[in-house]
Every structure is written in structure tokens, then in C-alpha cells.
């Protein structure tokens, strides 16, 4: 066996460790935008990835729909019975909306400045980091389509994350399950009155989000729905995050933390919605996702 | 020609890790464990064994950097990890006679090096907070089995390819290796 570490190799190793530390240090800094070569690589590889991802997903979808067929009859019955409820509800919604508008106009409140005004546009997922340390997705809409950094990203079931980087033709989404100290979302839960808090991280083993900074004298119960609060940054109000499954008091005893089970399945993602709160430059959604 | 075949194969595997494999990942179907594909790492480590450690380092830097750029935000983590693993395993392999079993053991050792290094590094810089126990049982062991099976499947074709490559470039290799390190 040749000598494992000659002096020269040791020097090379040490230098590369220094370079590694420097590279990690620079890329960990908060960056507004990626460098040109990074954007170029991500875009061009993203394009090839979409060629791979789409057929694979449709094959998987075929198997899934065969599996679903068993339950179809029962589900259909259930849905039919729910449909009547829906008609009644939508009538009620109409009247309530109208009443709301009338009341607002009586009080001279300007419409459309609300926190919950937003527009969505659709995108398809094309790749996901294979190592689960970084929970990042790539989607096929980018700066050209109006995606901006920090926009909320959701599936029809609920919030899944936010846009981390944008390239011209694709963008990277950081999932809510990504452990990152900057990955925070202002959240609230509605029962009798609004309770505000922050989603501050993810428990990987229990697979729940940590909804913390809730004052200790406010009671939150299991089963309450948590939604985005929209009072910090670019997220709109009212995107469903998940449901409270457990509440515990913090060590200090002044605040409590609720465990929130995400409403969206973080592993079964295909079509996503990017949510744009500032409605100034929205591209009309073309929604060409291949729906089965 | 053969070299382009090798690079092409590695690139396709690299894409499969993030796309096709993710569609069929076990979490998708409600299993509690994770399967982490390290297909590129397996082949790069085999390059280190069958060609030369220096070649392993070159491919490791190339595909590690690609992995860093596309799938993570931190540049340099996999670039360093995969190339060092390929280098160490490439040297270790000189003491063994290479057959499918030793290549399997050494290949998995290389994958383990990368897994543990990345886990320790990411714990250090707070990218993850997974406990060692969960990492070891839910992630490391299942992934080891996956990558072991993968290695056995591709063992013969890749071995043929790599041996052919290193045969035809032996002279050139010698000169290159001297100048590289």
C-alpha cells in the first residue's frame, strides 16, 4: 500500500478543508439572490429534471388511481350527501358576503386593502432534494412568471413552504419542515378570539410544526385550525397551516407551544400554488397541471 | 467515448435521485423510515477503486459540486465529502483483492463516510436537529440496504466500463496523477 498521507497531500487536505469552511460560511449568509452561475445551473438542470419527473409521476399516479378505485363508491355516496350541505353553505356565504359589503360601505371602509387579499398562480414540482437534511423543492415557475422570494407556497390542502430562491425559469421552495432558524411564519388560530403566535421550526420525529409564543393564559385546544396571520412580510392571511394535536407549556412557563400537524401532505406534492399578496404584477394562471 | 458514457450515466443517476426516486420514496406511502439514494456516491467511490483515487477525487468534486448547487444551498459540503470518501476508499481498496464482496463492503463504507460526515456537519451548523438514534435507525440503515442493492445491481456493467476506461488511459493516467497530487 502506498503511503497514505505524504506531506504534499496533507497540505492539499488542509487547504481544501479551509476552502470548505470558507465556502460554507459564504453560502450560509443571508443572500438576496443567487449568483449567476448558480442560477444558470439550477435553471438548466431544472429543465432536464422536469423531463424525468413528469413521466415518473404519471406512472405513480396511475397506480394510485387503481388503488383509489376500491373506495370510490363509498366516497361518492358520502360526497353526494355533502353536496346538499354545500349548496346551503354557498347560499349562506353569498348573503353573508353581501351583508358584509353593505356594512363595510356604511362604515366607509376601503375594500381590497385587507391582509387576506391574494392571487395565486400554479406551478408543478419538478424535483426534491434527495437528502432529507434540506427540505427543498424545485418548481417550474420562476422570475419570468412573477415568482418572488418569500412568497407563500401551498397545495390545495394547506401551506407547504415559501419561495427561497428564484431563477429566471424555476424556483426553489423551502418546505415548512426544513430546520432553519430563518424559517418562521406568523400564524394565528381562530376560535372565540384570534390567538397569534409564530411557527418556529419542525419536530422531525413527531412530524409536527411548533407553534410557539402563545401566551400561557390563553387556552388553545386540540383540533383547532392554525392559519397564517399575514401580519409579517409577504404572506397573506388565511392560508391553512394545519391542526393542533398537542399543547405543552414552555420551560419558563410564560408561553406555551402547540404541536401543529401540517394540513398538506409534505411528501405527496405535485401541483402547488404560489401565493402573491401584492397584486400588482400577477401572471394569469394557466393551470396546465396534468390533472388525473 | 467510454468517458462520456460514464459521465452521462452519473448525470442521469444524479437526476434520478432527485426526481424519479422522490416519486417512489417511502415517505410518500406513509412509512416511517427514509431511503436516501446515494447512487452517484456509490459509482464515484467505485471509480476511486477501479481507476485511481485521483480520478475519484475529480469526479467527486464535479458531481459533488453539482449536488450542492442543485439540491442544497450550501456550496462545498458534498463536493468535499464525496471526493474525500472516494480518495480514502480508493486507497483502502489497494490492500484488498477486488471482487463483488469487497467492493460491496468498501462501497458501503464510502457511503457511510459521506452520510456520517454530512450528518455531523449539518448538526454542527444547525441545518438539522435529528437525534443520532433516529438518524442511525430510521435513515442510515435503510439507506445502506438500498445503496447496497443498487451497488450489486450495477456492479458488473460499471466494473466493465471502469476497467475498460482505466486500461485505455493507463499511460495518460500515470502522467496526470503525478501532476495532480
TrEMBL record, chain A:
One GO-annotated biological process of the protein: regulation of cell shape
Function: Involved in formation and maintenance of cell shape.
Protein family: Belongs to the MreC family.
UniProt entry tagged with the keyword NADP: no
UniProt cross-references to NCBIfam families, sorted A to Z: mreC
Keyword Transmembrane helix: no
Domain Rod shape-determining protein MreC beta-barrel core residues, every copy: 126-275
One Pfam family here: MreC
Lineage of producing organism: Bacteria, Bacillati, Bacillota, Bacilli, Bacillales
Organism: Guptibacillus hwajinpoensis
Keywords: Cell shape
PANTHER family: CELL SHAPE-DETERMINING PROTEIN MREC (PTHR34138)
Entry GO terms, CC: plasma membrane
Protein known as: Cell shape-determining protein MreC
From TrEMBL, chain B:
GO CC annotation: plasma membrane
Keyword Transmembrane helix: yes
Transmembrane segments: 38-58, 70-92, 98-119, 140-158
InterPro entries, per the entry: Cell_shape_determining_MreD
Keyword Cell membrane applies: yes
GO biological process: regulation of cell shape
Entry protein name: Rod shape-determining protein MreD
Natural source organism: Guptibacillus hwajinpoensis
Lineage start: Bacteria, Bacillati, Bacillota, Bacilli, Bacillales
Gene transcribed to yield this protein: mreD
